[in-house]
Amino acid sequence: MQFKASTDYGMRAILYLAAQGTTCSSKDIANDMSIPRDYLIQLAQLLRNAGLIEARPGKHGGYRLAKDPSEITVLQIMSALDDDAKQSTRSKRSTRKGGAMVQGVKQTYQLIEESFDAYLDSLTIDMLLASVNDGESGRAFLAERLKEEGKRLAQTS
Length: 157
Hints:
Helices cover 70% and strands 5% of the residues. The protein is mostly helical.
């Protein structure tokens, strides 16, 4: 799976801010994370509107996380950067007509989307940074999260 550029850059910016733990200039974020600065500023507005980052104007201003990294999930970041497109797609999908087989396919696709969203909502920024900083295998960490989220989903159905 490959993320859209906006999602990729937004994730990089959030992870950078979490790792730094302080206010960072758009210039530093853009340079250190290889993000076009003008694009970063546009994405930062979306992340700010979602309540994930704060902007501080002035000479020593920049961006910082608006929440603790343990309160920011991958899904929140993706939703902040992609919400308009998702709403448009869901709207188009709901207006399509089809027979029983098509409805079954739609329901299956909806289940996949819900499962994907639930898993991404279970991954917080501090978890991701901890898995790297503690030297854990990133795949083992993510597999464990997937297993835990699978158990939780099975209990709620």
